Each structure stands twice: as structure tokens, then as C-alpha cells.
Amino acid sequence: MTALKNNKHENFALAFIEYGGSPKKTMDASGFKWNASYFSQLKNKPTIQARITELQKTVISDKILNLSKRLELLSEFALDAQLPKNTRIKALSELHKQSGDDVQKVDMDLTAQTQNVIRFIDIALPKVKDSEEDVTIPDDALDSLDEFLGKDDE
Q1: Which of 25, 54, 96, 108 could be 101's S-S partner, Cβ–Cβ 3.0 to 4.6 Å?
Q2: How far apart are alpha carbons 135 and 152 in whole angstroms?
Q3: 95-123, pLDDT tens digit by residue?
Q4: With bands split at pLDDT 50, 70 and 90, how would you rate the model's confidence at 47?
Q5: Are residues 38 and 57 in the same domain?
Q6: What phi and psi values does residue 105 have, to the nearest 5 degrees?
């Protein structure tokens, strides 16, 4: 549906959205003198009701980030090496929540091995994201990752 042909009715529908359905403000803003009965008649007119519904949907959809937009934005934050680590970690945590992955918070003592795994992630992820070429990861970081994941050398 496009704008209503009657400009006063279109202004009524726009004002209704802008002022959250407030009768007096809607009437004043749309150029009508305040009259509760006439407000009710205008509000219940099928063409005006349809236009208000359409405008409400447009307003809502323009203000809401859908799931894919949220996941994309959170992924960009998580992979952005320019951001502080705590911001990236928060983005990852929120990304897991938003994507439906279950995340449990576990208190851990960071061993040298775990620190190497974190170093691996910090080195590898940004490079992999921005590069189409093979990425060289230090051997000690790879060894710690294998050990951390429980893989034996073959």
C-alpha cells in the first residue's frame, strides 16, 4: 500500500504512528480539531487502519536487526584484531548465545598450554579471515593446540 490519496488521512496515519496513538496529539498534528468521536471514526476507517498497520510494520522492521545481521556484526567484532581482547571475547560469548550454542562459564587456571592456545587463536583467526593464502602458525602454538585437543602425534 502506498500513501493514502487523502492527505489529511495520510497525515493522520503518520501522526498516529509518531505519537503512539495518542488521540489529541494525533488529531492536532494531522490538522484536525480535537474531537474524540471523530478520532475514533478516523482510526476505525479501513483504509486508515490498513495504512497504520503498514507503517507500524515498516517502523518495526527498520529498527530491528534480524538474526543474520546480529550474527554478522558480532562476528566482525570477534575477529577484529584492532579491538581489545575483552571486547572480542564478549562478542564471541554473545555470538554463541545468539546462535543458540550453549556456553558454560568455567573457571580455569591458565596454564602455559592454555595461553599458547589463546595465542594460536589470536594469531590464526585474524590472518585466516583476511588472507586467502596459507597462514604460518608457530610450532609451539600448534603443539599446544594438539595437546589441548587431546591429539597425539602420528
Answers
A1: 96
A2: 22
A3: 777 666 544 555 556 666 666 666 666 66
A4: very high
A5: yes
A6: -85, 125
